[in-house]
């Protein structure tokens, strides 16, 4: 592309690949791609490369994989690329010496309507918290996490039954469009920014872990429903299934809900042909897909072919 700025792209997962692909497809001048070092994975501990590295190599792009973003060696390699602009999507926090290097600065794509949902898991928490809208934001990076001046935002509704997997893919494509719009504004030197408000009441998107992915069956039906769809398919909501004196850690995926006033104990299970009905305070959660320890995810109909629920089985 004529007059395209020299761009360095930084990212690691699939979400970032779609954005890098949009830039490549449009013919922008990508002079370097920074991604995470290869990591050992699986039983054989074979080195796995990031999704961004796989894509970048397939396009013949120059790839750097620093372990230390402050190392002199990496800083010199980055300077040698003579980038005018750096774009960050799903990468690490950058030191000032890195984000302050290009003449046009460094901007980040974040999958929320900033300033809400700053942090590691904005798509998940928007659904978990029952939001009805979200979006994508581009902003110039500064010293703190996700606090820089906003360049552009695009909003979208969240469907009542949408899972994090569905929303992730929609925001990935929206983000690709927003990145192109942002680069065009920067290249034309026609950017106006909005400073993010300082507000103590902002919703956050802190990192997901085993504890905050566990289902609390004492919560209201809508809260449980939102949590499970907000973690489906990754990293997935889980709980213990108490059955035949055994306590199994199970993951729960596809669900539905039924508002009512049950007389059953919270967590008690009714077995149906194609779902499990779990009693909560204000209704029933209908489990359609589940995963037992050491097994693959399966629909409930398949589960019942080989699994017997005892009387008194319950979710904890």
Structural class: alpha+beta
**Percent of residues in β-strands:** 25-35%
- Output mean pLDDT: 95
Number of separate helices: 8
Query: CATH homologous superfamily name of the largest domain?
Result: Formyl transferase, N-terminal domain
User: What gross morphology would you assign?
Assistant: elongated
* CATH architecture heading of the largest domain: 3-Layer(aba) Sandwich
Topology:
Blueprint: E1 6-11, H1 14-25, E2 29-34, E3 39-41, E4 46-48, H2 51-58, E5 63-64, H3 72-80, E6 85-89, H4 96-99, E7 106-110, H5 122-128, E8 133-140, E9 150-157, H6 164-187, H7 221-229, E10 237-243, E11 246-252, E12 255-259, E13 269-271, E14 276-280, E15 283-287, E16 289-291, E17 298-299, H8 300-306, E18 314-315
Parallel strand pairs: 1-2, 1-6, 2-5, 6-7
Antiparallel strand pairs: 3-4, 7-8, 8-9, 10-11, 10-18, 11-16, 12-15, 13-14, 14-15, 16-17
Helix pairs in contact: 1-2, 1-6
